[in-house]
Amino acid sequence: EAIQAKTKLANTALVELMALDFAIDELGLYLVTHADDQEVLNLYWKYIALAKEGRARYQEQNIWYPICGI
Q1: How many CA atoms lie within 13 A of 41 on its CB side?
Q2: 67 near 14, Cβ under 8 Å?
Q3: At 36, is the secondary structure helix, strand, or coil?
Q4: How distant, in Å, are the alpha carbons of 6, 63, 67 from that of 43?
Q5: How confident is the model at residue 62 (pLDDT cuts 50, 70, 90)?
Q6: Helix axes 13-33, 38-61, angle to 10 degrees
Q7: How many Cβ atoms from other residues are within 10 Å of residue 31's Cβ?
Q8: Is the model more confident about 34 or about 60?
Q9: Which residue has the higher pLDDT, 17 or 70?
Q10: 19 within 8 A of 3, measured Cβ to Cβ
Q11: What share of the chain is helix, strand, coil (3-state, %, to 5)?
């Protein structure tokens, strides 16, 4: 909701992917200095899997608007 309020973007699959990408980046930065935090590492990999799955679904449904993926 915070992203939508500031950018006035609708709640779309693309906005959700952007939020996941942001979270992945932030978790990655955290893990640079907290490499032993297994809980965050598990969350990091879970978000990567969700983003990969979401990108695939998005691209299947939006063949005219492909996005770059991991």
Answers
A1: 8
A2: yes
A3: coil
A4: 26, 30, 23
A5: confident
A6: 160
A7: 15
A8: 34
A9: 17
A10: yes
A11: 75, 0, 25
